[in-house]
Amino acid sequence: KKSTTTTTTKGGGFGTSSSTTTVVKKHTPQKYDLSSPQGRMSYIASKVQTSNFSSMPYTNSNSICVIDNFLGKSFLSHLRNEAESILPTMIPSQSTKWDDTTQSVITYQKHNVLSTQIQGGPEGYAATPKLVEYVVTMTQYLSKAINKVVPEARLSSTEQTNKLAVCLGDGSKYDKHIDNMGGNDRRKMTALLYLQSPSMHTSSSSETQQQGSDNDAQQQQQLDDDPNELGGHFRAYDVPTVGSMERIAPKGDRLLLFWSDSLVHDVAPSFAPNGDIDRRWAFTIWFLTDDVGNIRVTDSELAQRHFGTG
What pLDDT, on a 0 to 100 scale, did the predictor assign at position 303? Predict the structure, then answer.
């Protein structure tokens, strides 16, 4: 920052003279006491407040916002350590999908995927204090930041639901789905933070990739099914255009935002060729809208094209 000081001097017989001095002040980054809860929460809030969410227009139901190096490698490692500490308490992850045989939505257990919900309260905070602080701070500050850019979202700053999940490898994956397909579900926006080391997925983590042709699709399918690769890419469908697909690598400290009630996506097979260090960790917060009437109705043509129903 620059400050300008003007000095005026009156001298005998020589009139009035003035001089202007410009002083350059160095910007000192604010320091946070990361050993205290308040310091950690202020740090997370500052990361939200200095991020750009302009790539989340409400008019584009398939918009995706990707923010790399969101919390910093050191802070992220603390979240990962807490996540690993509760791995023995995590349970097989269940989800729902459309079943062509029964022509209905069924519940199924994901292969080699474990999950849990991070809970507040004395017991939950004692187990994972930093993960709880992350949820509380993101719920308050990210909701306000998005509402400022996209007021139509009407996100609650007090309500959320969340899931901590880990893919253990051996082809663990998520089937194609939309997070919220209606009913009384108020989940409006998904905020997904990858907890693995930022040094993973270095060959393809900095850019997203689109596929359009059949040859591209076949090549990427072979890559996604290769057990010598880490895999686990987030795959968004009809992005950027109908019929195309965007692959986003699960690079550690990457924050991924999208609309819960509209984006068709899945997770490609995930592998862990080097054991535990290669496991794919994802921490998801779903932000609720204040009005269930604000949830988009799934387009019948889209449902037919992706799920065989509509």
Answer: 87
Please state the pTM of the whole predicted model: 0.84
Structure letter (DSSP) for residue 88? G
Cα 17 to Cα 259: distance, rounded to the nearest angstrom: 62
Q: Which amino acid is at 15?
A: G
Cα 33 to chain centroid, rounded: 25
Q: 213 or 172, which is more confident?
A: 172
Task: State how far the Cα of 103 lies from the Cα of 112, in Å rounded to an integer.
Answer: 26
What is the spatial distance between Cα 250 and Cα 167, in angstroms, rounded to a whole number?
Answer: 12
Do the beta carbons of residue 143 and residue 254 sit within 8 Å? no
Distance CA 119, CA 176 (A): 27
Cα separation, 217 vs 239, whole angstroms: 14
Give the span between the Cα atoms of 56 and 26, in whole angstroms.
34
Please give the Cα distance from 277 to 259 (Å, whole number): 30
